[in-house]
Backbone:
């Protein structure tokens, strides 16, 4: 059985409904589909393997680990948000 969440909004987590729109740009809270797409891109690779552009070697992990780590990092950031932020 597969569960699909297409829209995530909550009266208890108002950031999910926040939108900042300009004529050519919209800033909004990422959806689960957005994060899935980001994880897929991370799995494909984020830089030339011969170059390490940052001090963190997360990008050298196997593709499935990079994808999972991308999701876990973003979920942790969601949970860390406070009203004072």
Residues:
């Amino acid at each position: 059985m597969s569960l699909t969440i297409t829209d995530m909004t909550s009266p208890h987590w108002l950031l999910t409904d926040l939108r900042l729109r300009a004529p050519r740009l919209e800033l909004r809270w990422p959806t689960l589909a957005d994060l899935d797409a980001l994880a897929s891109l991370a799995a494909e690779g984020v830089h030339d393997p011969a170059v390490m552009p940052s001090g963190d070697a997360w990008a050298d992990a196997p593709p499935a680990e990079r994808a999972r780590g991308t999701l876990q990092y973003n979920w942790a950031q969601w949970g860390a948000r406070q009203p004072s932020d």
Observations:
- Residues 1-5 have pLDDT under 50 and may be disordered.
- The longest strand covers residues 19-22.
- The beta strands are 19-22, 25-28.
